[in-house]
Specification:
This protein is mostly beta strands. The protein has six helices and 26 strands.
Length: 387
């Protein structure tokens, strides 16, 4: 099983495909193993055995050494081989991990991320993201040449679904709303408000983002990341940018049956108690942001309520779409291909926006586009795995 997504406070490794190399090829534990209470056990994972593939090509001159906020360290080099994802396949680059120290990788075979190529030196050392590699024109042995460079994701308590090429309209109960990303290299939206309180008319709600000098255009950048388990909010005043510490206020106000209301582009999205409080483990899935982080992370708690589309068709910057999830929809159990009249992002309108000021509804299309729906296993509501 390959883990989907990233780690909080991580690096750009979460944008690419990383796999563990076989024990016979020299997999080791890093020197910082003592940071964790539990040991990393290489024998628990299935490993990529280099010698078993006749099409594998190493690129050992390109190496990576990645460190994460929780102390995880991954070291490896680049390689290339035929990769299959759902119903699509092609020759694609990926990272081969030979050193790992984290018990989070016990029973995990690698990391599969969907993101944007990194610029500069960092981008030259890291493999090209998998969806980009498969859809590049002229990609070797690829059957994904006509696949639109988009993906969508949602989660339930026990399963999840990745959709390549767009989204199945049956997964949504309302119209997709689109906004351009604030970044060319990450999926970032501008959050202008975050309220917390009890749902229902007349109930008191508290603003958690109390800006120090409000003029009407304030926002905090928020990374939309299905690889982050929880909602991650500032644990301080961000150097005086806020009057309050949002996480401290939330801790003091915590109550059962409460919700968060996140406003992006003038649209407000509710995150109910059932999404951010994990009943199976009795855990509150809201965390303070790491020191130095100047915004928010919107993780799995959001994807339990909304279908989110990540559109990378434009060279300039990605477009993010959000629609209410249809809770009656049953996630697929095997990979399925479907043809849909996909609603499209209104690109001409969105090109005029900075990203935080408004969202626009989808434009209807008569064109039939192919969407590949891939099943995912949701482990304890916080980790996603697929074969």
């Amino acid at each position: 099983a390959t883990q989907i997504g990233s780690r909080m406070g991580g690096s750009s490794a979460l944008l690419v495909l990383l796999t563990l190399v076989g024990v016979s090829e020299g997999l080791s534990t890093a020197s910082t193993q003592s940071l964790f209470d539990e040991a990393y056990r290489p024998e628990d994972s299935r490993h990529f055995v280099v010698g078993s593939s006749s099409t594998f090509t190493p690129d050992a001159d390109k190496t990576f050494d990645l460190s994460y906020a929780d102390g995880t360290e991954l070291k490896g080099f680049n390689g290339e081989d035929v990769v299959q994802l759902g119903n699509y396949h092609g020759k694609a680059p990926f990272g081969v991990i030979y050193s790992c120290n984290s018990p989070d990788f016990n029973g995990v075979d690698g990391i599969l991320g969907f993101g944007l190529p990194k610029p500069g030196g960092e981008g030259r050392e890291l493999p090209r993201p998998i969806l980009w590699a498969l859809t590049d024109k002229g990609a070797e042995d690829s059957n994904a040449q006509e696949l639109l460079r988009k993906f969508s994701f949602f989660s339930t308590d026990s399963t999840a679904e990745l959709q390549l090429g767009g989204y199945d309209p049956a997964t949504c109960t309302d119209e997709m709303q689109y906004t351009p990303s604030l970044s060319k290299t990450d999926f970032i939206v501008g959050v202008t408000s975050m309220m917390y309180g009890k749902p229902g008319a007349g109930e008191k709600r508290t603003e958690l983002l109390q800006f120090e000098s409000p003029s009407g255009g304030e926002y905090l950048p928020a990374i939309m990341d299905s690889g982050t388990s929880c909602l991650v909010i500032p644990g301080d005043t961000l150097g005086g940018r806020l009057k309050n510490s949002p996480f401290d206020d939330f801790t003091n106000l915590w109550d059962e049956g409460t919700s968060f209301w996140v406003t992006v582009g003038g649209k407000t999205f509710e995150i109910p108690y059932s999404s951010w409080f994990l009943q199976e483990t009795k855990q509150t899935c809201v965390q303070p942001a790491p020191a130095g982080m100047q915004g928010l992370l919107i993780g799995d708690v959001f994807f339990r309520e909304y279908m989110v589309e990540f559109d990378m068709m434009d060279e300039g910057r990605p477009i993010i779409g959000i629609a209410k999830l249809n809770k009656e929809y049953t996630p697929v159990t095997t990979a399925e291909l479907g043809m849909y009249k996909l609603h499209q992002a209104p690109r001409q309108k969105l090109q005029l926006l900075k990203g935080e000021e408004t969202m626009y509804a989808a434009e209807h299309s008569e064109r039939l586009d192919q969407v590949d729906q891939v099943p995912i296993f949701n482990k304890k509501g916080t980790q996603y795995f697929m074969d």
